[in-house]
User: Fold Mediator of RNA polymerase II transcription subunit 22 from Gekko japonicus.
Amino acid sequence: MSQQRVLPQSKETLLQSFNKRLKDDIKSIMDNFTEIIKTAKIEEETQVSRATQGEQDNYEMHVRAANIVRAGESLMKLVSDLKQFLILNDFPSVNEAINQRSQQLHGLQEECDKKLIALRDEISIDLYELEEEYYSSRYK
Assistant:
């Protein structure tokens, strides 16, 4: 996995769009949070009354908070899209996992075969001894 794989153009474009979405959403969160902090400062004297300014600031904070939530939801969707992309397009990892599991199961099969052969040999010896005992017995 340490080697760099060459991706087809469509996959490269998709990854670039994921990167752009990530940067845009993070920037949106940071900008809106910064503006909320700026809005929280009390201005000295303005041309509008304090109550009006307070309502306007309250409304702006609600809008900016909604923008932060929207950007967060977009980031969650991006994570989901990245997981789907990885699952659908990471064939070397899937093949490696399949090969490892296959080797694991072959080892388990060989171990079971050895145990079954040992069990068969023990049963065969016991059966031979029982047959000898039976045929040499006077109760047959």
